[in-house]
Amino acid sequence: MSRYLWALFFLLISTAVLQAQNIAGVVNDENGIPMPGVTVRIDGTTQGDATDLDGKYEIKNAPVGEQILVFSFIGYTEARETINVPPTGTVTINRDMEVDSETLEEFVVVGYGVQRKREVTGSIEKVGSKELTDIPTPSFEAALQGKAAGVQVTQGSGLAGSASVIRVRGVASISASGDPLYVVDGIPITQDYFLNGNRGGMNNNPLATINPNDIESVEILKDAAATGIYGSRGANGVILITTKSGSGSGWDFNLNTRHGISLPTARPNMLNSSEWLQLNQEAWENDGNVGLAAPLPGNISWDQARQTDTDWVDETIGVGFKQAYNFSTNYGTKKLKLFASLGYDDNGSYLIGNSYERTSLRTNASYKINDQLDIGANISLSQGINNRVDAAWSGGLGAAMSEALPIYPIFHSDTIFNGEGEILHLPGDYWDDGSNPVRQRELTDWRTREFRSINNISFEYRPIKNMFVKAYFGYDYMNVTDDKYQDRLLLNGERNSDRQNLAERWENYTNNWNTNFTTSYIHDLDEKNSFTYMAGFEYQESRTIFKPRISREGVEVDGPFYDNDELLDGGFSEEEDGGLRRDNPNDTKSVYNFISGFARVNYSRSNKYFAQASLRADGSSRFGENNRFGFFPSASAGWIMSEEDFLKGNETISFMKLRAGWGITGNANIPNYRQYGFYTQQNEGYNGEDILFLNVLGNPDLKWETANVIDVAVEMGFLDDRITTTLSFYNKQTTDVLLEITPQPSTGIEGWWDNLGEIVNRGIEFELGAVMMDRESFTWRTDFNIAYNYNEIVDIGSYSEDAISGGTNDTRVVVGEPVGTNFLVPFLGVDPTTGRNVYQDINGNPTNTWDPADRRAVGRVLPVAVGGLTNTFEFGRWSVGLVMVFSIGSDIYDSSSKRQNGVVTNWNMRTEVFDRWRQEGDEAEFARLSQRVENYGLDNAFNNNTTQWLKDGDYLRVRRLSVTYNVPAFNVGTANFKGASITASASNFLTFTNFDGLDPEIARDFENAADMNLSPNITYLTPPQEMSFNLALNLRF
């Protein structure tokens, strides 16, 4: 028996000696901070481990003897270390990883996660922090212009704080919004244009409250493979905004300052007083009258008119001043990551009295409680104050280009009495018998205040290896207050008027809650095959309260009225004197919610074959009870061909990837409650009785638009990726297009919503990145992109073109044409014999009479192609950047010019009207001048909707030219600075175009989504874009 025990003992001892031992250690990054997720394996075996949150790893049962340890992590250079594993004990191997500059940008943010760029099978564009802040703009979306193929960005007008318009791969909606979905740090945010629509000739921009300096990156998801995980809200693209987080070891500080000026890109050329009097007199005489034209507009005398020459453009346009200060700090330890920032940005526009000020505060923090649990919180507070002025159709510069005639003075020069001897005006009072933009501005105090707070709390729990459970709780709060004070001399103009000063307030509040939970699991089958599973749930609820307009007359204030606490806090909230008026006794509340479940599976084989499938189920309160829920699948695949033997080692082609995707997404971006009918109560109606009548039809079958999208692309790199290209093809078929139908007034119905239309968008996108020159002292890099889009209305059911209109009644929805085609009467020119306009009727015959029945689809609202070109030059400590953007193939309908260069009215005219017909045989651009609409073949001066006002909209614009000098680390006394840079830049200072209006880049004010979709090319007294010149200083310490 003892013999067997001894034998067993020696067997166990020998087995222990033969067993492999353990390898353990810690892996740190370049700053000495532990790195989680680093793969550590023994070369030539399947044995390995991944580091935990403390950077620790352990490989058990390692083979004895000499082995090679391989450390790998995306964005870092692979490290290999030869070690000797002893027969007993544990060998400790620590490692510091080094950043691989060539792969540093390989991660992109995707829906509910991040992904290695080489594994992405959808169409995603990434714009980094530096690109967003290179161009000085108060709102980040304007900086995206020209940076991403297929993403058309039209800057807001010259008004400070105005909204840009973004369209991803064309327009696929008519009455529903075509805006993409915006997601900040994983939370969908409110993006509606709030409060009074386009009051004052401008839309508010809710995105302007986000400080571009706080953004780490913006990812634009373009195809269904990328947006499918967002289901019913992904049809117009998704823009993911990731704000900065703490990093590094210890404290880092950054200070940016910027000062600059702004000017208009163009100035309107209007007639002066003598020129206007001359042409007005010519029209008077052409109409068969004799003597001096009378009466002149504004009841002004000829003597006064001859002695007055007011340049109203000069009175409304000046030089805007800009200043910005942004301070931020980074802090990082093994457990705590912190980013905090404070910013102030004051953007004065070239319009006198107009500016937009933003003050922002952000704190992003994350903390590792233990090896399994992380928590994080992102908190932002911002306030935007827009000191408003009227513009466009509402006055200001718009009035300077229209009803403010040069014969009008700014001030009264004499005391004016009425017939009873009462004083109406004193010398120095503002002129009020005609349009006076200075009076309008100086007797109005108008401010819009936007307060916004975007916040989220996150938790990440890792119950087992490779499993991640995440929870996000987001809250987006917005309060918009519009305060306006008008002097009584503006409201009536005469000193004996009973009108009093008037203070008004409009206000709304939005509370947007979002909660999402996701669970993901990485399942490595073996060294070659890996699956990642993700499933989640999301709930969003948004509540907006619209306060009724409140006003009070007889208010006397000194200084800016919105700084008067007694007025605002007391006068608007108490009715003690009965002077407070409310347009409606009750608030208006609007609520919508979404509830969603989603799942995604990613597969990878040999790091060169990739596949992805996702499914999302959405329920929305915005649709009819019969179509509350929808299902949105997507699938995609990618193949890195350059990893195959037939391309591996190719000296020319260094990278080649083929990817393809398909998916179905939706658009739910419509106003609330459109599935219900609306009734209106009329008091003392028929027979003196109160009646209730239906004025908006409901639709219980209303559902979301559905986009069926196919995308195919090839990504290539040449000469060790010195040249990179991406060529993409897509086809998007949108069905069940949401239409707001406007019937004939005789029906007694205002309208209703229905799913009837079908739209197709298909296109080609090309991107090129090239290092043109790379020498020790000089580097030149070029980035170019261009996108072609074909757009067509396939079907609008049984409705006619006039059922859906947009803009200033000049665009329509026409089957076989692009969305929002111009619907105009063709203009053939001016008859050299008679000087009258010649139009073309529906049969192709010339006629002198304008008839709406002769309208047809003409021109092109949407551009055929858009793109951008960026060149960056670096030599020594200097760098030069040049960004250019272009738009090709669209026409602009210059709606205001039909009044400025058409029938002679009480509007001023442009100087090009001098090219008018004067005598038989003249080949002129404009007709014989007349004050009578019938001499132009019209029934109304504003019904002159013809192709005469349709202009070439192509342009090439220098978006930015900058020169930067980089200063290395330096000391000032005991203060140590890690570096600094000084940048001088100019934006929008040079434009090449054939457009003879003010500016070919138009983002005019819009009343609703349909106008924005159908009429982006219509300008009506729209202020031109601004050019700016800036000097910026950046300090790092």
Main attributes of the structure:
single chain; 1037 residues; mainly beta; Immunoglobulin-like; Maltoporin, Chain A; 2 domains; 22-stranded antiparallel β-barrel; five-stranded mixed beta sheet; 12 helices; 8% helix; 47% strand; disordered N terminus
What does this structure look like?
8% of the residues lie in helices and 47% in strands. It contains 12 helices and 56 strands. It has a 22-stranded antiparallel β-barrel.
Please render the helix and strand layout as text.
Elements: H1 2-18, E1 21-28, E2 39-42, E3 48-50, E4 56-62, E5 65-72, E6 79-85, E7 90-92, E8 95-96, E9 107-110, E10 113-116, E11 124-128, H2 129-134, E12 151-154, E13 165-168, E14 181-184, E15 187-188, E16 215-221, H3 224-227, E17 238-243, E18 250-264, H4 273-286, H5 302-307, H6 312-316, E19 320-332, E20 336-348, E21 355-368, E22 373-387, H7 397-400, E23 416-417, E24 423-425, H8 437-442, E25 444-461, E26 467-486, H9 488-491, E27 502-524, E28 529-553, H10 565-571, E29 580-582, E30 588-605, E31 609-620, E32 629-640, E33 653-667, E34 678-682, E35 691-696, E36 705-718, E37 723-741, E38 752-774, E39 779-795, E40 805-806, E41 811-812, E42 821-824, E43 827-830, E44 837-840, E45 846-847, E46 856-858, E47 865-875, E48 878-888, E49 891-894, H11 897-900, E50 950-952, E51 955-967, E52 970-972, E53 975-977, E54 979-993, H12 1009-1014, E55 1018-1019, E56 1026-1036
Parallel strand pairs: 1-7, 1-8, 14-17, 49-55
Antiparallel strand pairs: 1-4, 2-3, 2-5, 5-6, 9-10, 11-16, 12-13, 14-15, 16-17, 18-19, 18-56, 19-20, 20-21, 21-22, 22-25, 23-24, 25-26, 26-27, 27-28, 28-29, 28-30, 30-31, 31-32, 32-33, 33-36, 34-35, 36-37, 37-38, 38-39, 39-47, 40-41, 41-42, 42-46, 43-44, 44-45, 47-48, 48-51, 49-50, 51-54, 52-53, ...
